[in-house]
Amino acid sequence: MLEGVSDATTPAAARSAALDELLRDLNPEQRAAVESGVDPLLVVAGAGTGKTATLAHRVAFHIASGVHPRRILLLTFTRRAASEMLRRVDGILRRMPPEFANGASASGAVWGGTFHSAAARLLRLHGRAIGLEPDFTVMDRSDAEDMMGVARTDLGLGSKGGNRFPLKGTCLDIFSRCVNSRAGLDEVLRSAFPWCLEHVDSLRELFGAYVDRKAAANVLDYDDLLLYWHALLESPDGAREVRRRFDRVLVDEYQDTNALQSEILRMLCPHGTGLTAVGDDAQAIYSFRAATVRNMLDFGAHFPSARILT
To answer: Are 286 and 91 in contact (CB under 8 A)?
Structure first.
């Protein structure tokens, strides 16, 4: 038994003592972030400042405060990062009396993973709300390129005009940026692929054919997972079912989210209640998937009741 817990005269006092034990290794700034309430929270933390420890402790703190692990969604940018985070959460919870750990290990109950893995899991459960059958297949990059290539060939888009028509990989990159940036094809071409501007009409035709092929085969590409999650949250029935699953949503590396991911979070947590985002605006690196540091900079505008801690 932890020191102080055995002498506690009330369950509330016992829980308070246990939570103090959980927070013992944190500095004042980290502790403030971990103990912050349910209002939307943005933690701005540079490299080497213990942001991973802070996020892991916040997950553990939620569980020790009475939130069931399966009602927590932890979003990271790699499966390995999620596994490591949840391993650390389990280690923190092992210091707690069992009555405050909700009877389950975090790694076995928390919804932990990438945006895309969470999307796939939710779509298998609730996709019928938007007409998506749960037995859909997710194509990897190679398969998506091949399908784009077949559509490109069938439309006769080899050499057209002065410049050679973009290769299938470039076409998929353009399509992906349109999806993730929430921008139109013309805007994406002007800003990121200006050498392809002369093919705008053919690309629009190609992307329509690509979308039709995916629908006919009941397959999604990597970016579709986010697009369909977004569509699910636009559906009244789908949004209700998804939102009721989670009391807390935590996001790591928030500086590397894109416009589509930011919209998903705002739809998942319309008022930001229970939302925690952690990021470093000096380390935005995944721009190839249309990531934008504006999501961090605009957090307070997106969630007016937000608390921002460094």
So the answer is: no
CB contact set of 68 (below 8 Å; sequence gap of 6+): 102, 104, 109
Give every residue of the chain whose pLDDT is below 70, as ranges: 1-10, 100-104, 159-163, 283-291
| Contact call for residues 275 and 303 (beta carbons, < 8 A) | yes
* pLDDT for res 1: 37
Q: Which of 74, 85, 77 is nearest to 283 (CA)?
A: 77
Contact (Cβ atoms closer than 8 angstroms) between residue 258 and residue 292: yes
Tell me how far apart the alpha carbons of residues 266 and 84 are, in angstroms, rounded to a whole number: 26
Q: How far apart are CA 34 and CA 28, in angstroms?
A: 10
Q: Is the dihedral of CA 224, 228, 234, 240 positive or negative?
A: negative
- In tens, the pLDDT along 203-252 reads 999 999 999 999 999 999 999 999 999 999 999 999 999 999 999 999 99
**Residue 175 burial (C-beta neighbours within 10 Å; 0-12, 13-18, 19+):** buried
Taking CA atoms, 296 is separated from 29, 184, 215, 284, in Å, by: 19, 23, 34, 10
CB 216 within 8 A of CB 136: no
Q: Which residues contact 273 (CB under 8 A, 6 or more apart)?
A: 38, 39, 40
Distance CA 257, CA 250 (A): 13
Query: What residue type is 49 in one-letter code?
Result: T
